[in-house]
Amino acid sequence: MRLTIAIPTLNRDYCVERAVDSALSQTSPAIEVIVSNNGSADRTREVLSKYSDPRLRVFHHDSTMPITDHGNFLLDRAQGDLFVGLSDDDYLEPEFAERVLDLYAKRADISFAYTRCWTHIRNEAYASPGGPEFEDTLSFFEHYFAGRRHIFWCACVTRTSDLRRLGGLPSGVLIGDMYFWTQLAFEGPIGCVSEPLAHYTYLVDNASVGIPVCKWATETRLLIERVSARLKPLEAGPGTIRQLERLMSRYLARTTANQFALNASQGASKLVLAQALGSCGSLLAGDLVTSIPRVFAALFLPTRLVRALVTRFASSRSRWVRAGDGAVDARS
Question: CA 158, CA 161: separation in Å to the nearest integer?
Answer without folding.
Answer: 9
